[in-house]
């Protein structure tokens, strides 16, 4: 079932979104060379507690996810588990995926950052992935279709010479983190669900430097590129409004 949210509900999702934005701010500050991904998770936990939010990541799924953020370095595409023995090094890239719940309403967003100075290909991978999300957001407009959103990601990411992960997709979001519809990062334009006011989507391109193929590690969570080349991931929670796309996971 696809639900549309009222203005008041979207306002609550924006409050959850500001918590997510602050989590990102502190996580990015924590993700320095020599820090561990557990340090990044602790920075996010502090924000959740201080803001009186709940985590939608902690305990999610099976086996229950143990962090409040997913920390996915280098060849890890998504769902990396924060750990004391994963030490960030100069030259790494790191996807930080954060979520929060306020009064039952969810927000979800991800960013990929360079750890210190990174190589040119990593810089371009991050930049192209960020731009692919921006292009998708421009299509979160009444009357456009889900296929237009996916096609926008595809055009930017593949135009940059990279490949798009197909096994994992974006999603509707509201009183649950993952609601219908699924939001693929590819697709023919002018096809699929027509976007209407009140629809709220988490759009999250996952873009690989090498091939598109993925693999899940033995921990049951960590998704890596099969060729072990690097991957970047950006995500925002966005509402379709009468005034166009409204990004709910920005820091205001
Ligand atoms: Mg996410
Ligand atoms: Mg998501």
Topology:
Blueprint: H1 7-30, H2 37-50, E1 69-73, E2 76-78, E3 93-102, E4 105-114, H3 120-137, H4 146-159, E5 163-164, E6 170-172, E7 179-183, E8 200-203, E9 206-208, E10 214-216, E11 223-225, E12 231-233, E13 236-241, E14 244-247
Antiparallel strand pairs: 1-3, 2-11, 3-4, 5-9, 6-7, 6-8, 8-13, 9-12, 10-11, 13-14
Describe this structure in words.
By secondary structure, the protein is α+β, with helices and mostly antiparallel strands. The protein has a single domain (7-247), classed as Creatinase/methionine aminopeptidase superfamily (Creatine Amidinohydrolase, Alpha-Beta Complex), CATH 3.90.230.10. The chain is 28% helix and 25% strand. It is built from four helices and 14 strands. Strands 7-6-8-13-14 form a five-stranded antiparallel sheet. A three-stranded antiparallel sheet has the order 1-3-4. Strand 3 (93-102) and strand 4 (105-114) form a beta hairpin. The mean pLDDT is 98. The site of one magnesium ion has 6 residues, from strand 3 and strand 4.
